[in-house]
Write a structure and sequence with these properties.
The chain is α/β, with parallel strands linked by helices. It is built from 10 helices and 16 strands. It is globular, with a radius of gyration of 18 Å.
């Protein structure tokens, strides 16, 4: 009989589905709720050293193949966020990912130290958000050296297993993946959202106040699959495949591209709070039909074809 339980960096997961940062991960109790709704692990909404209000509304819009958002990394800051992480550790009953972002290498390390007090199971560093370029400049994930420097600094600052969230807004993910691995990353999260724009023709203007935003949902899925594939070809550390997964077959595709875990976010919008349970049921049915016993049996299979 097939099972969804799996291992990742020495931790046991009841299934491979990780709540992506930005969805239901605002508080410790919302992360615990996500775990009760079927997620095998949860990620807090990314935190910065100081609180951020984010961008003015509208900040999220649905279009025919997905969502586009420019929330602007709103968050309560690492001090309050660490308290929420500690609560999630107590209540969720599944592995907990902290997530931080910053404007400098030094601030990344400081933010990582601050959230490490909550003893999260893993730390994600978001070096790739596409909708705050006007504030932070080119994302660190678009420059191999910058990605290396941030990863190295955070790895030196905290002992927590480290996952680096990379950007699809590059010609090829391989060189970035290699650099973060070289810098000491324990895992890669591929990918963040893809920079885009939606214009309202009648209004003759972009819908988002920020003009540009990050594309997620089904429109992002083939881009994410390609990026996972490139990362798997280029680095040996495990991958969390994130981007547009809404069905069990989508999850299988990400696993076969090289992911060991599968991030889920926008599917909560399209398929409801039980998206992880639904996708898990579909993945299990696929595994039974195709003869796979474990999630690990599918990882990287597309590279053998």
């Amino acid at each position: 009989m097939a099972t969804l339980s799996t291992q990742f960096l020495g931790k046991k997961f009841k299934n491979p589905f990780v709540l992506a940062s930005g969805f239901m991960g605002v508080t410790g109790l919302s992360m615990a709720s996500a775990a009760k709704h079927g997620f095998g692990a949860v990620t807090i909404k990314s935190l910065s050293l100081q609180p951020r209000k984010g961008h003015p509304a509208p900040v999220i819009v649905e279009f025919d193949r997905g969502l586009i958002n420019a929330v602007g990394l709103s968050n309560p800051g690492v001090k309050e966020g660490a308290d929420e992480l500690a609560l999630a550790k107590k209540e969720a009953g599944v592995p907990v990912f902290a997530s931080v972002f910053a404007d400098t290498v030094e601030h990344f390390a400081e933010a990582a130290k601050a959230v490490s007090k909550a003893k999260p199971d893993f730390l994600e560093i978001d070096v790739s958000c596409p909708n705050v370029d006007n504030e932070f400049g080119t994302p660190f994930a678009c420059d191999p050296k910058a990605a290396y420097d941030v990863t190295r600094a955070v790895k030196k600052a905290v002992p927590i297993p480290l996952s680096v969230k990379l950007s699809p807004n590059v010609p090829h993910l391989g060189p970035i993946a290699r650099q973060v691995e070289k810098a000491g990353a324990d895992a890669i999260n591929a990918i963040n959202t893809l920079k885009g724009m939606v214009i309202q023709p009648e209004a003759r203007r972009p819908v988002l106040t920020n003009k540009f935003g990050g594309i997620s949902g089904p429109a992002l899925f083939p881009v994410a699959t390609r990026c996972i594939y490139e990362a798997y070809q280029s680095a040996k550390i495990p991958i969390i495949g994130t981007g547009g997964v809404t069905t069990g077959r989508d999850a299988a595709s990400h696993l076969m591209a090289g992911a060991s875990l599968v991030g889920i976010g926008s599917a909560l919008h399209f398929r409801g709070l039980d998206a992880a349970k639904t996708i898990g049921k579909e993945l299990l049915e696929f595994m039974e039909l195709e003869g796979y016993k474990k999630v690990q049996d599918m990882v990287g299979l597309a590279h053998e074809a």
